[in-house]
Amino acid sequence: MSIRLLIADDHHVVRRGLIFFLKTQEDIEIVGEAKNGLEAVTLVKELQPDVVLMDLIMPVMDGIQATREIKQCLPKTEIMMLTSFSDQDHVIPAIEAGAAGYQLKDIEPDELVLSIRRLIKGENTLHPKATSHLLTRINKSDPFPHEVHKLTRREKDVLIELTKGKSNKEIAGALYITEKTVKTHISNIFTKLEVADRTQAALYAVKHQLFGR
């Protein structure tokens, strides 16, 4: 089954370049393109793509607000930010808005395709710089949340490894458990912390200072 994808970017040349390459992939179908965030929201409601490649800075409505509105009406549509900005002032708000992926525009085409496929599978699709910001941002004003006490010691271990950007296979190797067990723990983590995906779980872990606990 093809991955139905919509591209939102205010630069025509960028959209053309992405379409030129992505349309060669047998498992990716380009269903639409938008030149600003408002147009992206409208098209997503109409076309209901699986994935949106979302630019961050656009006229009329930026990528963060567009992501927020899309996730409110179509939570199953995955958003991957594709931008030139790697600082935490852009990364964190994008993830908090609901973006499950964050990549920079200098990404190699093959790596972009791999990231899209991983996004659909629910795997980590954060650029290393984005992951670094998650790992270093500790919000000391946040209280230690009650929800964390629902996690078992092993679930906390899995959550910490997940936040480092590791795949299920890598987590399994690090903790000496099976991939099936990792998947079970991750499902439990999502339920207990009331988060939708790995990116939201990683952000939760950093905000609430779970490292070293």
TrEMBL record:
Hydrolase recorded as keyword: no
Domain Response regulatory: 4-120
Record CDD domains: LuxR_C_like, REC_NarL-like
SMART domains (UniProt xref): HTH_LUXR, REC
Positions bearing 4-aspartylphosphate: 55
Xref: PROSITE patterns: HTH_LUXR_1 (PS00622), HTH_LUXR_2 (PS50043), RESPONSE_REGULATORY (PS50110)
Keywords: DNA-binding, Phosphoprotein, Transcription, Transcription regulation
HTH luxR-type domain segment(s): 140-209
PANTHER family in the record: TWO-COMPONENT RESPONSE REGULATOR
Stated name of the protein: DNA-binding response regulator
The organism of origin for this protein: Jeotgalibacillus proteolyticus
